[in-house]
Structure formats: C-alpha cells, structure tokens
Design goal:
The protein is of the alpha+beta class. The chain has 17 helices and 34 strands.
Amino acid sequence: MPDARFAPVGTWRSGFSFLRPYQAFYSSITVFPWLEGSFRFTRIYDVPGFPDRTDTDYGDYRDKSFDAKVLLLPERGWWPALGVGMQDIAGGTGLFSAPYGVASKRLGELDLTLGYGRQRIDGVFGGVRWSPRRLERWSLVAEYDAYDYQSDHGAALSGAASYKKEAAFGVEYRSEIWGAKAFASHGELGFNAYVQLPLERREFVPKINEPPPYTKINPRPTEAQWAEDREHRARLARALVEQDFLSVSLGYDNGRLEAALTNARISSMPRAIGRAARTMLSFAPLEVREIRVTYVQGSLPVATYTFINTPLLQRYFNGMASREQLAPYVAIEYAAPLEGKTDQEKKEMLQAFEEPLPEGLVLQHQGADFAALRGENVLGGRLRVRPGVSAFFNDPSGVLKYEIYGVASYNRPLARQLFFQAETKLTLYETISDVTQPSNSELPHVRSDIAEYRKASSFKLTRLLANRFFHSGERVYGRLSAGIYEEMFSGFGGQALYLARDGSWSTDLATDWVRQRDFEGWFGHQDYDTVTAIASLNYRMAQRVTVTLRAGRFLAKDEGVRAEVKRRFASGFEVGAWYTVTNGNDITSPGSPSSPYYDKGIFMAMPLDTLLTYDTQAAAGFALAPWTRDVGQMVVSPGDLARIVERPVVQMHGRDGLERFGDRDDDYDLPMLGADRRWPDLLADDFSGARRAAGEIDWLRSTVLGAGIVLGAVSLDDTLFRRADKYQDKEWMKNLVKIGDALPVAAVGLSAVFAFDESRPRLSGAGLAAVESRGRDSGESKDQFNPGESDNKWHSFPSRHTAVMWAAVTPYAKEFGMEWLYGVAAVTNAARTGSREHWFSDTVAGSVLGYALGHLAWEARRGKKGAPSVAIGPGNVALVWDLQ
C-alpha cells in the first residue's frame, strides 16, 4: 500500500514484486523532494491476454501503467507528512487506477501510515513499520490491504476474486543500493526486491583506471626560442593529442598562448580545459602572461576560457591555491568563430608525431560498449563497429519483441566544418518481424510500419549523409544536411540555433524535406514525402530543469505542439517526459473520434562515465511510449545543434564555470539560508500579503469604476454580436477563436513554469502571482445565452476565459512594464465575443475581475521584497536587504 514517504531526491529504484496472481516489474524516480513518478508492467497469471485471437501465443494478460505521488506537506513536529497520488494515471488501460490521499508519521521507532483511496483502493488503508535502532536496516511491517481484488480484470480466472480486505505481515531489509521484503497475505507468500542508484551522486564508481593529468616537468623555451624552433609547438601538440585532444590549433602572440581543441573522451568541458591548460603551462614560453583555451564541441566552438594570472594558475595546479582564489582571474565567454586551419597548420599537426597514428581497426574496451572495434586518426576520422540491442513489448503477437544487431559507422571530415557520415546495420537475430497485426493507422505510416522494415532485410544502410556546420557569430550556429537521415527517411534540410548570453534559454528552427525509404533499406523510396518544420524554445530553470516547447509541422503532416520537461541530476542522468498535441486526429486505438490519441512518453539519458572506472563521453538512453503511433512524430536529426552544445553551455554557466577543473572536487559555493522554502510557508506568506494589499485598496472607488466600464460595454453588445454572427464561418474568425481560447491555458502553464524557476526571482514572483490569481473556467454553452446571466446552465457572466487571461498577464505587465501584454489578453476577449459564447460586456467584466485579482496577487508578493535574508559565504556571513 502507498505511504507519504519519499526516497532522497534522485533515487532511481527498479525492482520486481510478486503476489500470486500478480507479478510486476517497476521503476521509479524521485524527481524532486515532493514528486515521485514510476512505471509498472504487470502480469496477471491464468488470465489470457487476447482470448479472442487464435493467431497469437501472447500468454497471460499484461498491463503497463504510470503512477505519480506528490508531497503536499512535509512532516513537522506533531504534523504528519501528507501526500496524494494516482496509480495508473496514464499510458495504459486504466485497469489499476486508484487515486488516494495518505498521511505518514514517525513516532520513535514506529512509522505509521493512514490513507484513503478510491476505485481499486477501496476505502481506508494503513500500516505500521517498526525499525529497531539496533537493526536500523531491518523492519517489521504490517499493512491493511484495501485493494478491491474482486473487481480486477479476470479476477475469477486468476483466483483474485477470493481475496478480501485483510492485513499483510512481512519483514523488510533496506540498504543504500538494494532492498527486499518478504510478506504473507491472502494465504500466499509474496516478495518485493529492488536495486537503486543515487542519481544525485556525481559518480557511482571510483575512477581507478582514469589516466592521470599531465604532470611532467619540461624545459620551457623563451619567446625567441619558441618562435625560432617549431619543435616546441610540436611537442605541446603531441602531449595534448596523447591525452585524447583532437583538432588542436595552437598560437602564441605577445605573451598569450592560445589553443583551440576538443576532447574525444573527457565528459566535462571544464575538466578537459583544465587538463589542456595544465599541459600548456608545462610547454609555454617563460614570458607567457596569459593562457587562452577555446573548447570545440564536435566541430562547434562553444566557450573560451582566458587565464590572466598564469603564476596563480600554476599554484592552483600544484595545490597551493584554491579554486575560489583562482575564479576571479578566469574570464569565461562564448567562443567567437574560428578561422579555418590552413594546409600548413594541418601539415604541422601531422609532423607533430614521431610515428603516424594507426588507422586500422583495434579491439577497444574504453568506451560505451563492452567491446568495440574502432579506428582513429589525428584529424578526427573515426571507424567504429559495435553491438546493439533494441526492444518493443506488449504487442498482441508477443510480450517482448527484440532485436540484436551490429552497427558499423564511419565519420570523417571532408573540409572545414563539412563532415561525412555513414552507418550500416546488420541484424543478427530479431523477433520484431513476427508481429502479425499490421498498422491500422489512418495517418501516413511514418512510424507504425516498424515490423515491415524488419521483415524486408537484415542488412541495411541506416545513414549516409553530409553535414555542414556553421558558426556565423557568437552564440549563433547553423547546420545543413543532405542524405539518408535514418532507417525510415532520407532528405535534406537545416537548422539554426541561437543561444541566450546567460545560457538560460535557446531557440532553434529545424526544417527538412524528407522522403520515406522503402523497407529494403538501401536507396529505394516510397511515394510519401513531406516537409517538416519545427521551432523549439529550450528554457533552463533552477534545479537543473529544462522545459522545451516545440511547434510546427510533424512527419505525418499534422500540425501542433510538443512539450518536453526533463531534469538533469548531479550524475548527468536526465529524466523527462513529453506530450504532443496535434491536429492529426489519430483515432487508432486507444484513440477514438471523440478522444483522439496524443503522442506521449518518458525518456532517460544515461552518461556512462558515472558507471565506469574511467571517464568517457559515451551515453545510453531509452524512450518509453505507451503506443507506437504516427501522430506527433519527428524525423531523427542528423545533428541536433541544441543537443550538441547543451552540456558545455550548462557547464560554463554552472557556479563559476570551473567545476572539476583541477581534477578534484573543490566546490566552495554554499546555499543561502531560507532559499529552499516549503510551499505551505510560501502560500501562507502570500495570503498574509494579500490581506495587507487588500487593506490598501479603495474598494468603493474601484467597484464604481469597474461597474462603469462594464455598463459602458453593454452598449456595444448587440452590434458586436451581429458582427460575430456575420463572420462566424470565416476562416480567420475560426482561427481567432482557437488562438483566443488557447491563450489562457498557455498563460497559466507558462506561469507555473516561471513560478518554479527560483533562479530568476522577479520572474518567479510574477509567475507565482499569476498562478495564484488565476480563475477557473468550466466552459460555456455554444447555444443561446443571456447577457449578465450567471446561471449554471450558461455560465455567461462574467467570461471566465478572459478573467483567467487578464489575471495571468497582469503581474508580468506590472513587474516588467510590459503593458502590451494587455493587448495579447484582449485577443481572448475578441475570441469569446467572436465565438458568440459571450456578450462583449461579459468579457469586459471578466477582464476587470482578472485585472483586480492579478493586481492583488502581484502586490502581495511585491510587498516582500524588502525582507532581509542571511547569506553564508566561504569566509563571511552577510545580511542581504533588497531596498529596491
């Protein structure tokens, strides 16, 4: 049974549970201290999965579902922790749906739980866990099981129909990395076992096989010797390449030693720059005053680090100075476009080595794969052969469909910023082609014919293209691509990316003409082609959260928006979810004409350096969607610019940009006291502020003014209604209504995002005010209505859409002087009047009400700006008082 306890933030727990007739695999993550999400794949023994089909050996019934739990109140003093949750909230059949509320309280060695649920959790449930202090890892557990087993799917066949509400007793063991519980209930023995990873820990495995940084002491030349003998430059280049640095370009001028480079192995940009700077100091001319390193991610220059105090830099590497002392003497900025390397520079790079590096295949274990064949050369060309596996599950023709294959890829630069990529795939064994149910999607089959692609051929060309990258200006990047993009599509297109100066957001536009490839997987194509155009906004927030909004035209020619939210943990692991809404109107099951299916799912990206004994840039990942559908799909990018530069941009703006710079953990930043306030305290403060602000308002004057504005609008009701009736069938009117109706939802959604972003206090405050002031709209009838009518049948007066919209924009307009937002809010007024669901006066009344609520909420939060806070630094304690 659920409780109100949450594992530490970043805990990723995966396990297996069994109580006949139920068997479940599950995986859960504590995303925030107050939010936990999980996925379950449940098997019900002795209940056939598809009893009406004779062409399948699917076996027992299986169901997949997602759960969520939210902490409402933390445990304090005598108050228990309070939480609410929902089992089987989305993604499946809803057979195990169960909303609940629960409270948990610790009393000495006892942990008590009491809750109430609906649907599958039928009524009151509870439990007690006794954890003796002398055996803190062990617990005795007793629970009252309130599940309604008799209503479960196939309960009569599985035997669950005989299960009644009763107590369950068990013993539990918990450690840092695994746990297990054995219990007895309903006359059966059951167990639950799991393993877990702390994703907020930077590393899980010590780096015992990591090559040490460069520490050799070399005789350093003078400036004159450096200029006369190029061997000094060659020795430095050789030392850098031996540490996995590539595309090295060196220069020295007037006391400044510069390098532009990238690293093929080290995952942290500051750490790679630190190793490069350490090596450069060992070979630099004696007169050097400044070290400058430009880091190139892939082929894109991202960041430039300038060290203006080389003696201090040397003392830092020698352990005689702290990172806090070094930081003020390091300038970190976005890289300017680099000039192309000349033929002479390339020749010098090759001459830097006494023996050419081999270009043949070698068996390598230092990477993402347990074993891979890889060939390297100095200029960055790479030939790689690796194994792979992919899987699909819960198809009617079988529970698990999988594929084992080998991939051979070759990447090589052809010219400056121009790269050739090729990839072939050989399927060694697969069961995906056994799928017996063809796609019945009414949309173009841009993804749902996956089984047909597997049946046609076991050896395919999965990528063959040219990528041309551009760095036209600081923080501006571009890409042009042409060729075979992926297994299912080829084409040509491009992408443009712009980065904000502070790294808090970026925006890009990707446009591609693509044609669907045939099932054989070589150079043939099908008749289907389309143009996709996706505009994206990536917004980085506090607590390493990134929100991405995409809008445009998708692969099946459907148009709409896709929202993605992810959180990156200290280990580099990323966990997120996406939800797409388009006009594709996918009625393929589980969709229906009244409720079309929208693409959604969860994903995880896993950098492997945290799991290995050496550093690596290799990463793995997976995405899990409830169904493979054609709606809301995007083509695989030949090289997503936002993804390429994301990690180094985050690292250059993290703290002082020097995290792990010296190959050691020397963080010195400490949090501000009171920065992590609980939301109940926040709400209580805002309520108090609202009472204060309300007491300062002249309510009689405001009421008379508002009533006068509404009565004045009544005179325009008939005229505007007739105009709306006249143009009701016009396309522009229909689009106006759609946009105006969507604006309040978008405004409240964005405000919720901004409210969460504590890294921007003014924006967060305005967002909180907007969320707190929002109204609620239950919708209006499209039939006749009466002006000023507030009867539940029509909900005409006032317009709640406009009330929500004006309440949402008012805090931003006042906080940032953005009065034009009122014009955006007026679009909702026009839409509600144009749809003939409201009189014009109804929308004006809603605007007045929304403005008043927004103003009150803004004043409530604005009144707290003068409150003092205590800040603790490495060597001081300060009282901070904002008097603005």
